[in-house]
Structure formats: structure tokens, C-alpha cells
Amino acid sequence: MAARATAQRRLASISSQLAPAAPPAPDWNSALQALQSIFPPEQLSLDLPTREKYGTGWGSLLPPAPPHAVVHTLRTQDVVEVVRIATRFGIVIIPTGGRTALEGQFQASCCNPPAGERWTGGANGEEDERPRDAKKRETARTERPTIQVSLSRMNRVLAVHEQDFQAVVQPGIGWQGLNEFLAKKGIKLFFPVDPAPGSEFGGMAGVAGSGTNAVGYGTLRAEWIQSMEVVLMNGDVIRTRGSNRARKSSTGWDTGRLFLGSEGTLGIITELTVRLAPVLPLKVALTSFPTISSAVSTVVSILTSGLSPTSLELLDGTSIRGLNLARILPERLEEEPTVLMRFSNASEEVNAQNLRKVAGIVEENGGRRLRVARDERENEELWKARKSQYWSQQLLVGEGCRTLITDICVPISRLAEFVSRSDSYVSTSGLYAPIVAHIGDGNVHRAILWKGREGETKPPREVEELAKKLVRLAQELEGTCAGEHGIGLTKRKYLRAELGEGTLALMRTVKRALDPLNLLNPDKVLFPEGEEEWDA
Amino acid sequence: MAARATAQRRLASISSQLAPAAPPAPDWNSALQALQSIFPPEQLSLDLPTREKYGTGWGSLLPPAPPHAVVHTLRTQDVVEVVRIATRFGIVIIPTGGRTALEGQFQASCCNPPAGERWTGGANGEEDERPRDAKKRETARTERPTIQVSLSRMNRVLAVHEQDFQAVVQPGIGWQGLNEFLAKKGIKLFFPVDPAPGSEFGGMAGVAGSGTNAVGYGTLRAEWIQSMEVVLMNGDVIRTRGSNRARKSSTGWDTGRLFLGSEGTLGIITELTVRLAPVLPLKVALTSFPTISSAVSTVVSILTSGLSPTSLELLDGTSIRGLNLARILPERLEEEPTVLMRFSNASEEVNAQNLRKVAGIVEENGGRRLRVARDERENEELWKARKSQYWSQQLLVGEGCRTLITDICVPISRLAEFVSRSDSYVSTSGLYAPIVAHIGDGNVHRAILWKGREGETKPPREVEELAKKLVRLAQELEGTCAGEHGIGLTKRKYLRAELGEGTLALMRTVKRALDPLNLLNPDKVLFPEGEEEWDA
């Protein structure tokens, strides 16, 4: 009986802590008054052009989804104030940074198509073609007032601990900014994970993606982000690892991992302690193959031999055709599967040695002679073939070309099958869908291209259909719908097929525990309950 | 008004899901009946010798804390059955594997000292010296019936995906078993993270520790454990990444990270998909230095130069004295700070090249001539200096020597200061406390040695005091109380000082959400609420 009484006391205490007070009905007028009493005008944007700018996705063709206000935070306490106002007056908060996210992560859900892919393109304004009931639900959500919290002005490097290979940064600086800072100071360290140019650390951690260096350095889910300061929806400011700045620790499960990949739905990151890598001699090389299979075999052999590639990138023949049209490289490349590689080792000597081995592996697999950059200039020239992809591809379609970038990832052993089967979908569709893949990771971006019509507000049906088929195929091949760009609004529909009900239920349980009022970037990653629109 | 009504509906639904039904008072007789109706005798140990064996910590001097029963699960469904019985009849479950955990992770909390360090040694039975009220509380908890779920018989390798550098394993096999399996099959891949010999994957993931290879390969918190099957306390069996076996993914936050380091308090891991690394030529080298500072400078230079060490281990003069006494190596080593290194590269050629650079760095820092193993036999011989540490140290004290292994970790830049300041604590204490450190990570194990008295049930006061001072010093130097051995029962008292109240509160919130009845390895990592005994 004593045990039962204790259990009931404990449960009463749990319930009182878990079951939130009813959230107030949104009261925008009071919230606005409170914001204005705390933030000076230069930190609080209420004008439509600014709000539209912050409500627009990178390259999005959708009509802007302007928040009611943008607060430009300068310090952690500013974020705490916004959280207090939001929870008091029932206002939604969306944290935002470089706004390079591709899947609608920082856009108000009311104004995004619940079932569309992310796509880039021009104008806006046309009649909405979504089903009537979808429109109705979104209209209801449109009325939820939203504060966008922009962390971009918190963009300082707070400390560099050179001997410890660490930097402490604010969320508004990106990997590029940090690396420029370090180079300027003459510190021979850098942050090696390289998602979209312009991305900032808050969002990088939020999406937990990667970039071209993942094959050598791992993704943002590796140990690059060691500790974070996070503002929780209960107003607490926590440090996920507390005072500990050691290279490793085992103090229970790492609360920081909750926020990595949470896409701004569980807390707002206000500071990060990140690990750095030494800057080492780098060498770029390029070759091409008769088939994707031989490219894959080459890559697996390189990885098995421990030859220290930092990047292994695949461009297919269609991508190379775009490059040739754009005359990116001085000479025309063969329009066949091409692998661009970067190697990084302790010395040029070791690079050269390893590259001789790579050349042998390429030859064994029937590839063309390995072209190795002779110097830094040639490194950059060859690497341009990778960096110029997304715009050179547009030449395949010409003026008015629009793009939907897909982001599946499969086990490397299934990559050749993915490419050949998806090639047949592409050819049936009559569309261009050139490949740029992080082949070492199995992460394939097919960029679906089409000629946009004036004023269209969503990709044509055949583009959406192709994108879905690519995801279904990837999942069939034990892969994922999202290799590095996250889920946001556009990929939610694929999660049930991939993660299963139980994992989704666990994610919901944690979301409820951390954001019981569902005010922090709601409806991202997970559908609102009862409004699931599963696909695949 | 509509918004408020919706919010209230949502809250009602949240509350019903979050607030658990009252847990039943423990009913061991019914639980036992249910266990016996499901499990044959060979899967259900009720005899005292087996229960005592499973209730005894590795090398623990404490009296055994036998669970009421040990269930040896053979399949995931067995685990689900135990969870159902436990939640139905109010029984505590403790998952267990190799039982190498050092901090009381799998022992019933009732029978462990709430405020003592982990220590190794002999006999038992003496009068308990703990304060009267602590004893009373523990007596109350002793009465909670406990089922230990041993996963050790689930020890198969279920699949190896060689091209994908992946293996799928059950929780009862360890890194050694997996590596032997791969070697026997002629597969040139291995699992590189190497915690205690005998540890098994379930527990390895549970503690999220590391070993000697962390400087090269990262810890278990890096991307080595990609996906897990986990049984939750609501009976769900989830796969943290679902059907996805790709090398990377960004489908929201990774639920698997909740269980890494949770020490069996949030779910029970029943299968793991792990990443493998290529087996590459390895070279061991050894040198010694006049001071710890010069050893640290050498290590930082090696890391900055990208020379691919997989292990950088420090033994201090006292440790070397033990080695010399034990005649581990054919010749006597200088009794001064000694660094053992392992390097792994694509070829012997590159190893040799890199080791020439290392020799130069050592010389610049005033170290002795670098001794490099000439072949595999010498590799093994030199590495023995590391592997024989814990027993050779015992010779410093002689017969009856007992050991408390400490596990702090500090930023590398603070390591020399940690060693010199802690040296002075050690010399004041009059004890031996030789150092074995993963110097590349800043993880210092001082093994506190003393001559045990017959029947003592806890370390002498001066041993416990020294252990506490080491933790306080590490935390002062921005380090952690637990570099790789986890928290269990013995380190809980240090967490508040290190992580802060907010992070601890977040951990509690998540624990409550996942295990609302508090039946899964309760009181580990976190103190029972209202029973905190903070130290430092």
C-alpha cells in the first residue's frame, strides 16, 4: 500500500508537470505591445517588405508567407523574452537563420503546400489548385499569428581554443564565416562540414545535414557540434553539456542530440561549441566511367583502401552536358558518369602516393585516365565542375528553367540500381533530371528541370510524380527520402513509410514533452495530429 | 473561441497520453507466475548463485545485489513480454549485457552506495558505514522486486553489408566478437571503437563510451551506430531509422541518440546496425618525455599535422614503474611520462613517412628517440605496455591491492595542469594513483590504489576524498566527471555541478515521457526526485 501511495504521489507530480496549462487563445495585439515594449524598432521588423523577405523560401516560387513580425535577436536573453511573450499570448515562433533550408523548415505552415516538393523558380499569385479541404485547413492556420526569430545578427566567433580544436560560435555565423575568420587569424584549423553556402550554424545544427565533405569527415551528426546553449519553451536556458568542454564525455544521453536535426521544433539554439579539423594539403582529381556501376566499384575500393578521400562526387552524363554547354572547364568533358574526388593528407607527398593508388583502382575498373590537379589553381578549376552544377544544368532547358532538387540517399551497394531504375523513370517522364551525387555517401540529388509557365505556383504534375517515384524507389532500396536537406513541410508525407509508426509516435511524445503548447515551429517534421497526408 | 476549443481538445488528448495510469503496487508473485508461463526454465534463472552473479558488478567489492529473477532473452519478443509483465505488475527491469560497466549501471540501486566511487577488490560482508538515513531509504528500495533482462544470448551477427561498411548485430555480441567474426570470414573491415574487453553492443551503446581508438575514430557518439531496434516501455518495438540503412540521413532528430548513453533507462536495445572501418596497416611507436607538458605539446602537434594517429596513450612514471616491476617489456623503460601511439594509414609506406614526421615532432619537444615497432610482433609487444596496465600497477602496492579507477576528461589544453595539480593531491594523500590516459582526448584515468583490509565494503575515506578532488579539479578545468565510463549510480552526485539544473530537468522530462512508471533501470544517471545527494 505504501508503494502504491508513493507511486500515486509521483504520478500526481508528473501529471502536473507534463500536462500544460491550456494555451491562451492567440492575442496578437497584446503580444505586439509586449514586443514593442522590449525591442527597439531596429530589432523588430513589422513592415511588409521585410516580413515578406523573411517569409520567402530560398528560391521558392510560392507566395511569401510573411510572419506577423520578425525579431532580430542580439543576445540569448532576447530569445528568452520572445519565448515568454509567445507562451503567454499563444503566438507561434519560428527560429530562422541563413534561410537556405530547402524543405520549408522556416516558413509558416499555413502558406506552404502540404504535399508539394520543394522547388525553385520565379513568380507568384496564381489560383491555388490544392483540394478544397486542404485549403480550408490552411486558411485556419494562416490565422495563427507568428513571430519569426532571426538569429542572423548573433554572428560572432566568441572563442577559439586552438589546442583543443574548438571554436565557440553564435548561431548566426556559418561554416564559411568561421573558416574565413580562422584563416584571417592564421589559425590552421577549419570547420569541415559544408552544407549550403550561406547556411548558418543554428540552422546547420537544426537540419543536421552535411555537404561534399561527409565521406571524409562525417555529417553534422558526428562529433562536430559538441555542446549547445539552447532556449527551451519553458524559458530555461540550458547548456547541453554544461560546463564541460572536453573532447568527449559520457554523462548520460546527450541532450544536444535532441536539437540536432530538430529543425527548430524542440528548442532555439543560441550558442554552439564546435570541433575543428586541421587544414591539410588537398588534391582534386577527376575521371569518368562507361557505367555508374564501375564508378561505384571504384568508390568502394577507394574507401576500403583507406585512401582518405574527403569528397567523392558523381556527375552523370546529363550533368556533364550542362557543364559543356556552359563551358565551365576549358575543354569539353566526356558526357558519361564522372567522379570528382578530393583527397586530404598530412603532406603533398602522401597525397601523391595515395593518388597513384587511386589511379590504379580507376584503371582496374575501366575508368579513363585519372586527371589530377597539379596545383591550387587546377584544384579550383576542377572543383568548379562541382560548384557550377545547379546553374549550368539550367542550360539544358534554357530560359525559364525551373528546378526541383531531390535528396534521396541509399546504401552504396544499391546506388547503381537506384540510378538505372530512376533513369528509366526520367526517360519515361520526358524531363531532364541530371544527377549530382555525393556518391561516397549514396546521396543522390536528381535536379528535376522544366520550363516554367508564367505565374505557376506549383511544379507541374509530372515533376511531382517523378519526385515521388524517386523517393519510393529509394525507400524500396533501404534508403531515405532525405539524405541531408531535412524534412520541413515537404517530406513529412514520406516519414511513415520510412520510420514507422512507433518511431513517429516517440518523436511526438518528445515534442509534446518539450513544447506542450505546440508553439515552436509547429507542423514541421511531423504533421499536425489528425491531419496526416501520408504518401508512399 | 474556435482556437481555444481546438487547443483544449488537443490538450485533453495530450494529457490522456502523457499522464500514465497509476502503476500497480509491485506484485511479485503474479509477475513470477507470468514469467514462468512464458519462459522455459533455461531462460529464467531464479537460483541464488545465478542471481548473485548477475547482481555483482565487475570486480565490485560490494555485496551482490541479486535481482529477483534473470530472464535470458533470445529474441525481441521476449523483451516485449518482460516489459508487459513489468508494467502490469509494477516490477523494475534492468537490462544487462557484458556486465563490464564500472559505475553500477546494471546493479539494483538498493544495494549500491549512493555516494561512493566504483572500485574493484575482494570480499564482502562488513558492517555498512553509510549514514543511517541513506540506509533506510535504500532498504525501502531493496524491496522493489527487480527483473534483470540479460541480452547476452542474443549474440549473433545478423548481416554484413560489406560494400556499405555495415553490420547488423544483436546486442549480446561485442566489438571483439564482431571483429573476430569478420576476420574469420576474410572481410577486411572492423568495428573500431574499443571499450572494455567483454563489453557487448547493447551496453556499449548504452554507455556511449569509447576506448583507445577514439582519437582516430571518434567515440560511440560519432556515426558508428546508425540505427537501432529498441523496445520501449509502452511495448512498442521501434527502429530508430526505420527501414533506412543509408550511410546518412536527415529525417528530423535522430531518436537513436536518445538511447546512446541512456544507460538502459529509456529503452532496451535489441538490434543495432553499425558502421565498419577498413582494416589498414597499423604501426605502434613509443617514446617518453621529461614532462607532461612536452608530451601534450607533441600530441597537439601530431593532431594538427593530420598524421592519422588512431591511439595516443599516456602512461606516467608511476605506471611505468609498475610495468618495470612486472617485466612486461624485455627491457626496463625510463620511469617518466611515456606516450604510446598507434598510426593507421593506407600503406606501410605512408605509415613510415608519417612516423618520420612524428619522430621530428618528438625531437622538437625534447622527447627521447621514437621507438617504432618493426613488425607485427613488435607492434604487439609495445602495445602490451598499454594492455597490461591495470594488473601491473597492482605490484606497486603488492598483495591485496585494490583499485578505484577514475575517469575524468579535460580539454587537452588543460591536461598538463590537471596532471600537475592532481599529482600534488596524490602526494598529499600518500596513495599511489598511476595515470593511464587517452591523452589525445584529454581522458585521464588515475587508478587509485590501496591495500585492502579483509572484508571492507567500501574504499577508505582518503581514497574517496581523492577521487572527489580529481572530479572537482576536472570540472574546474572545463572538463567532465565521466570521459567514457558513464554515470550509473556512482557519478550522479557530480552531474548538477557539471550539466546545470536546466539540462538535468530536461533529462528528467524526457525520462518521464518515455518511462512514466519509472520502472526501467530507475535511479541510474539521475537521482530519484527528492533524494538528490549532490557533491562538488
From TrEMBL, chains A, B:
GO terms assigned for molecular function: D-lactate dehydrogenase (cytochrome) activity; D-lactate dehydrogenase (NAD+) activity; FAD binding
InterPro entries: FAD-bd_oxidored_4_C, FAD-bd_PCMH, FAD-bd_PCMH-like_sf, FAD-bd_PCMH_sub2, FAD-linked_Oxase-like_C, Oxid_FAD_bind_N, Vanillyl_alc_oxidase_C-sub2
Ranges of biased composition (kind: Basic and acidic residues): 129-143
Stretch list, region Disordered: 114-143
Domain FAD-binding PCMH-type: 63-279
Catalyzed reaction equations: (R)-lactate + 2 Fe(III)-[cytochrome c] = 2 Fe(II)-[cytochrome c] + pyruvate + 2 H(+)
GO cellular component: mitochondrion
Enzyme's top EC category: oxidoreductase
SUPFAM superfamilies: FAD-binding/transporter-associated domain-like, FAD-linked oxidases, C-terminal domain
Keyword Flavoprotein recorded: yes
GO biological process: lactate catabolic process
UniProt cofactor(s): FAD
Family: Belongs to the FAD-binding oxidoreductase/transferase type 4 family.
Protein name: D-lactate dehydrogenase (cytochrome)
